Amino acid sequence: MRITLKLIVSLIVVVVFVAVVSAWFNVQQEKAKLYEEVLSRSSLLAESFKESVRNNLAAKNYNNVQRLADKFQSQKQLEGVAIYDAAGNRIVSSSALTPVLAIHKEAIDALLKDGQDKAGIYAMAEKKMFLYPLSVALEGGGAARIILFTNVSYIDYDLFKIWKRTLIRLLAQMILISLVTLLTIRWNLVDPVIQMAEWMKNLRIGDAHGHAPPIKGDIFAPITKEATTLATNLQAARRSAQNEARLRQKGESLWTPERLKEHIKIKMYGRPLFVVSNREPYMHIKEGKDIRTIIPAGGLVTALDPILRAAGGTWVAHGSGEADFEVTDDCNRIKVPPEEPAYTLRRVPLSKEQEDGYYYGFSNEGIWPLCHIAHVRPIFRKEDWRHYYEVNSKFAETVLEEIADVKEPCVLIQDYHFTLLPGMIKAARPDARVAVFWHIPWPNPETFGICPWQKELVMGLLGADLIGFQTQFYCNNFLDTVDRTIESRIDWEHFSVQKEGHETMVKPFPISVDFQQPEKESKALAAKPELKAILKEMGLKAEYLGVGVDRIDYTKGMLERVKAVERFLEKYPAYQGKFSFIQLGAPSRTHIPQYHRFLAELHAEVDRINWKFKAKDWKAIVFLEKHHDHKEITKFYKIADVCLVTSLHDGMNLVAKEFVAARDDNSGVLILSRFAGASREMQDALIVNPYDIEQMADAIYYSLTMPKAETTERMTRMRQDLHENNIYKWAANLTEELMRLRMDDFKLTGV
Question: Residues with catalytic annotation?
Fold first, then answer.
């Protein structure tokens, strides 16, 4: 209440000051106006009286003058008139005025003595008089002076009324201000502060519902934002601590962002981590006149952003957003994430020709189908290879700029876009510790031998000190490819390649996700979303729901998936009108003709199936073709009875792990392709062959009819494994292995 009282008093003081000053100015203006009116009226009356008595004065007919003077005093506020000769002797005066003149003779004599017609105010007979003198020239050379006496006491009364009205109004304002201020402070400040304090108390004791404080209003928006971030971090830290304690009881230890940060600090001796990828973790796009930050879809961003948040450092990536370079500094750098900057994003600009040749051409029309073996013919063009080499060189220059002042820098290169980059960096900086993580599959030597530049690609990769793959199978394929392609010594016992004095370790590092992130977003929803409510927003009704989340790509098995849904509804017709499948598809690589054709075929297949099972208020398949943020995806993860991951060939597939991480209720069933790397870890999923439509249809049926106890048991085991083998453990293993390696010389040859 003390601050409330201070605020009210302060407001009242300000209002009183403004009101008094304003009233004073009004009074002064009104006073000047009234006196101006008195002066003007007195002047007119004096002139009129002068003309009436001039002749009588000249003829010394004073009886007529007296009669006129008595008559004249009947004018409004006019007390009377007096006439004096040139010597100052009173000739005539209004009868009522005569006693007053005798009493105030000295003041009148002083006025007459002055000899000038100057009006003035005098106190006479307990009244305030305005005396207006006027000289009269008489015929024959004589002169007289007329003085009008006007009662102006009413002016003070009028001014008093103004002050009175002001004070009454001021009193009312003070009361109103006090009440309004009191209520405003109570509703907009006191109550929210009390709510904030209660929420912070609950947060402290671990009883807070959701991450955002229950207060609204623009004034608390910055506080709410920071409090939400603080709550999220605190609750995440508390969960990590709880899990850490639980696992320590079992003799195990959980990897958290904090632990990773300390681990990297110790292992890397405080040096920053440098990550290189084609895709950037944050993209800036234009929305009208505004610039919005979005997170691109894909497992790479999902996996690596938490690592850089924990470890700090620099992420070098292609700036592909239309507004990317409008928000960077002169060196194309920007701090990210926007809400809580933790590391630097260095963007590399590429020309349209370079992007077309390096990314859409060589990388995604050549290497991508080559490695995925998805029955799509790889296309290799010499011009695309030239652009691929140019872009790798450009990224090498950028990375070398970033690591210029760092002793023995640690560089982590991502994926198939930069097969030449390890060799380029190592040739310029032999002291650099360079690792490559290959996210996609590595095919057998016969398949990889299709590439006209296989030797150059292999030599570029062998510039790294460490090459990581998703599975041991892909490691074996790579070593077989090296053995078939170049002269080198392969140590199959330790899985390394020695070439011209340089040793490259090849090991599996199954990538994972930040277990806490989907869980946090899941908890941020406060309660499990209702299936009926979400479907109602889309104008649909269903009792069971399946979900798929993918980039729109021919390797993801999306066509096979919708056909499996069709077969399931044919085979088990009782689920028609009850089961809907929602496919979230993020547009990808739309410049490539194969992707255009695939998307058109997918749309046609979805339309065909929906027409086949056409019904009111129900669709068999809902295809949502757009970029979805993590919160939207989490919402669908939580309400789905089954998640379908049916990749035809996949290095890992993090959608499967994100789905499991989001299911904090330990329910839901994961149907997982045997050709996805995740199937080697997530044995409690229903493992299927995506080419076997019948098997997938039966898997959907089994997922919906599975006993609840079995569902819970399967999901609990997968969540436990995922919790312990999270992205931070992956990063720790990778960096620890890299820092353990002996550095030696590397000669860039054959590229």
Answer: 439, 650
